[in-house]
Amino acid sequence: MRLTDLLSAERVCVRRGNETVSSKKEALALLADLLADGSQPAIPRDTIESILTEREKLQSTGIGDGVAIPHGAVAELDRQCAALLIVPDGIDFDAIDGEKANLLFSVITPKRATGEHLKTLARISRLLRNRGFRERLLAAEDGRAAFELIASEEGGTS
């Protein structure tokens, strides 16, 4: 399964300039909005925001190099769902390297699919390990352009 199978262009959001995101809390709320739009069956955005926030309380998902992977499990979900928030200016996210996060790739998964969830997190981590690719994502004009970059990096459009 490719990441673009879990994602859609509509769930990739670029926020810069006057529309930038200024806090971790605001970022998690926006990611919850995006994920609620793609969850099947539909999961309320408040439920998703609560799950992401509770996970962040355990330990930040800011893995360094400007990348954070907020994630969580939802019992009612039928399949995984992802969203990407790109904030070129970066936000404080309590990342392990102490740097701001500017690529926030969020995933919610059915509680019964732990192995699949871990594979997805590893796939995201591998994709965003490439510095040049991260820089191209940060320069993406909009969510659709960022989605197409991911599809191209994974080997084609979905």
Structure at a glance:
Keywords: Sugar transport, Transport. The protein has helices at 3-6, 24-38, 45-58, 114-127, 131-139, 143-153; strands at 12-14, 62-64, 67-68, 71-74, 81-91, 101-110. It is an alpha/beta fold and 158 residues long.
Account of the protein in words:
The protein is α/β, with parallel strands linked by helices and 158 residues long. The chain has six helices and six strands; from the N terminus they run αβααβββββααα. Strands 1, 2, 3, 4, 5 and 6 form a six-stranded mixed sheet that branches. It is globular. It comes from Pendulispora brunnea. Keywords: Sugar transport, Transport. Residues 5-153 form the PTS EIIA type-2 domain. It holds the Pfam family PTS_EIIA_2. This is PTS sugar transporter subunit IIA.
List the helices and strands and how they pair.
Blueprint: H1 3-6, E1 12-14, H2 24-38, H3 45-58, E2 62-64, E3 67-68, E4 71-74, E5 81-91, E6 101-110, H4 114-127, H5 131-139, H6 143-153
Parallel strand pairs: 1-5, 3-6, 4-6
Antiparallel strand pairs: 2-3, 5-6
Helix pairs in contact: 2-3, 5-6
Give the integer mean of the pLDDT values: 94
Largest sheet, strands/sense/barrel: 6 strands, mixed
Secondary structure category: alpha/beta
Count of β-strands: 6
What is the approximate shape?
Answer: globular
Give the fraction of residues assigned to helices: 40-55%
Low-pLDDT residue intervals, each spanning 5 or more residues = none
Oligomer: single chain
The helix/strand series, from N terminus to C terminus, equals: HEHHEEEEEHHH
Number of helices: 6
Rg, nearest Å = 14 Å
Strand content: 15-25%
Determine the N-to-C terminus distance. 11 Å
